[in-house]
Amino acid sequence: MTKKETNNLENQEIDLFQISKKIGSFFNGIKTWLFQAIQFFIRNRIIISILLIIGIGLGVYLDQTQKNYEHQIIVEPNFKSTDYLYSKIDLLASKIAERDLVFLKSIGIKNPEEINKISIEPIVDVYEFINSSKLNFEVLQLMAQNGDLKSVVKENTTSKNYNFHNIVVSTNSFTNEKNTIQPILNYLNENAYFSKIQKISIRNLQQELQSKEGIIVQIDGILNAFSSSNGNHQKSDKLIYYNENTQLNDIIRTKDSLIKDIGKLKLQLFNSDKTIRESAVVMNIKNTKSIQGKLKFVLPIVFIFLFIFIQFFISFYRKQLAKSQLQ
User: Fold this and answer.
1) Residues 97 and 172 reside in one and the same domain
2) C-alpha dihedral over 44, 40, 49, 316, to 10 degrees?
3) Are 218 and 190 found together in one domain?
């Protein structure tokens, strides 16, 4: 073995020794830190126990007294009133944030001081949005080319075109539909312009419904006449000739299409009784999001961490003060 190779081997041994020494120092440091932490908790066990008791007790009290409930209203805005609906909800949200109890009482809410906030969000239904119009699919496809489809379907310009929207009202106690939800719905439907639009739309739907029903009556007359002529024991080749030249199959398909249209019109007529029509109301859902109902676990941990931080800060300050005095 040459002298150069011997030196390289010795250097490698020294490097391995230094690495092992550093690893040993690291684990020794961890052991020292754990020992000091155990000592800290033993030394301050009375204070920590008191903080645990206070945190749990205060957390239980706050969980019992500061409850939060959500009330969800699924609504369908008619007559292209989606923007109007969102602007009304924004106004209500600002009045609640300002604690304008006079305004809230004026619209019929019985206990406005119990309301914390109100918000609205669309119920995303991409398939219904696409199926409702071919143009919607083309617009969505065009918008998705310049961005992520998931973000496109949720952005403001797209989301307002969905049929259903969810209004969420938050209160700090139980409430009922009569005292809180119904006054809000009445307020949303108080608009002279949309009331006139509603009357015109209902009249148009009724006229269209009567027209289509009249066409079905005429089609039934044609079919009955054909059935009567068929009942006079005509030849079968005459039936085939008559069927091919009067396009009887097209008439039957037209009737079938009209029946489907009439069904849709009746549903539209039923849903047009209000500008903002509620589809479902779910009351008094206990809010367990974030730290709601979990303060009895959160507060003790927060108090102990604050105590540790204060003790660390005091220790750090004393050490730095001692160093400055020695210099």
Assistant:
1) yes
2) 70
3) no
Can you tell me which residue has the tokens 């089609």? 219
322 and 280 in a single domain? The answer is no
pLDDT tens figures, 184-240: 999 999 999 999 999 999 999 999 999 998 988 888 888 787 767 655 545 444 444
Q: Are residues 134 and 279 in the same domain?
A: yes
Inter-residue contact 254 to 219 (CB < 8 Å): yes
Residues 6+ apart with CB under 8 A from 262: 209, 212, 213, 216
- 113, 92 contact by CB (below 8 A): no
The range of the structural domain enclosing residue 147 comes to: 67-196+275-286
pLDDT reported for residue 90: 94
Measured CA to CA, the distance from residue 188 to residue 77 in angstroms comes to 10
The three-point CA angle 150-151-157 to 5° equals 120
Number of domains in the chain: 3
Helix (H, G, I), strand (E, B) or coil at 236: helix
Contact 120, 168 (CB under 8 A): yes
- Give the tens place of pLDDT for each residue, 7-44: 555 555 555 656 666 676 667 777 777 877 788 888 88
Amino acid 10 reads: E
In sequence order, which residues have a C-beta less than 8 Å from that of residue 79 and are 6 or more positions away? 194, 197, 198, 201, 272, 275
Residues 6 or more apart from 120 whose CB is under 8 A from it?
Answer: 85, 86, 89, 165, 166, 167, 168
Same domain, 71 and 189: yes
> Which letter does DSSP use for residue 178 in this model?
I
The answer on 310 and 243 residing in a single domain is no
Residues 144 and 241 in one domain: no
**Residue 124 confidence class, pLDDT cut points 50, 70, 90:** confident
